[in-house]
Design brief:
This protein is α/β, with parallel strands linked by helices. It is about 40% helix and about 15% strand. The chain has one domain (about 15-230, about 265-300): NADP-dependent oxidoreductase domain (TIM Barrel, Alpha-Beta Barrel). The strands form 2 sheets. An 8-stranded parallel β-barrel has the order 3-4-5-6-7-8-9-10, surrounded by 5 helices. Strands 1-2 form a two-stranded antiparallel ribbon. Helix 1 crosses helix 2 (about 70-80), helix 3 runs parallel beside helix 4 and helix 9 crosses helix 10 (about 265-275). The longest helix has 20 residues, at about 240-260. The chain starts with 12 loop residues before the first strand and ends in a 9-residue tail after the last helix. Bound molecules: NADP nicotinamide-adenine-dinucleotide phosphate.
Length: about 325
Amino acid sequence: MTADSDRFENMQYRPCGISGLKLPAISLGCWFHFGDDDEVDISKLIFGAFDLGITHIDLANIYGPPPGAAERRAGPVIAQLPRDDVVVSTKGGLTMRPGPYGRGGTRKNLIESFDKSLARLGLDYVDIYYHHARDTATPIEETLGALDSIVTSGKALYAGISNYDGQSTKEVDDIRKDRGFHPPVVNQVQYSMIYRKIEDDLLPVVRKTGIGVVAYSPLARGMLAGKPVDAVFGDRAKDLGDKIDSLKKTVEGVEKVAAERGQSPGQMALAWTLRDPAVTTALIGASRLEQIEENVGALTNLEFATDELELIDAAYAAGAGTIDWGS
Ligand SMILES: NC(=O)c1ccc[n+]([C@@H]2O[C@H](COP(=O)([O-])OP(=O)(O)OC[C@H]3O[C@@H](n4cnc5c(N)ncnc54)[C@H](OP(=O)(O)O)[C@@H]3O)[C@@H](O)[C@H]2O)c1
């Protein structure tokens, strides 16, 4: 692959909290469409994204299906990129296989999972290695100690946490300072115009602790980019009943604001997620390169007028904000 020499020009690079590491404002995730039976041209997605300045590619050991497939398929494509100009992340901790050792934040699972991820990817190192979700059955010191050992080994350059709430993130910060562990530089969490739980919980904590936020599903799996809400949930839509109507209400409300701004709804959704400097990057998925191209167009208008923000808040309060999303 010959990388486009202009690729950095239209992308912004934002720091991960107080760390020196910068990520592109828009990053590419490899959860959907990277399974063994998927027909999407993943080389086209990854190379095309890279040429648009998207230097960050996100994976996890469980991404597939089957688990492991996404790392196995993406690794050889990533290997064709200039390795020192790309930030590759992967994760461990969610269920890879049955039994007591196939999941969790234990030293045993994380270190073994990490080695297997590297082997599947076929890379010498990853840039960020995440613990995928807090494991309350394992002392947090053990989890952080395992991440610290992995970073100390040099085979991951930075540690990350994912789906840690505000309180757990504060604990992480206290423990890593106390124990002198390498600090996790990012917390990867869900954040979009329909899922705003982090605003009152995590964001106040990361502003103090200096951990960057990687906002995943910023398009709400496509709902905020024109994909019909029912289509996103497929067969599960009928079980969700009124919740679907609430989501539709918010989507319709924000689409009106986007039309007034002259942005596509998806572009506005990404700009909105990035409006807070505590958010380092919006981590998108895509099935076609044209979607990524459109999404990068969000960066040409990141500013919001107060009345636009108020209308978006009102659309949330009238719809998605009324739903109990659980944990
Ligand atoms: N840490 C965690 O627990 C966690 C959890 C979830 C996700 N993630 C990460 O976040 C990444 C992104 O998640 P996501 O896929 O839910 O993100 P998303 O960006 O909210 O949704 C992506 C989907 O939106 C649609 N889309 C994207 N751009 C579009 C456009 N311009 N126009 C119309 N539709 C568009 C596509 O749907 P179609 O595919 O139907 O075309 C695409 O697959 C994952 O790959 C993963 O790396 C992490």
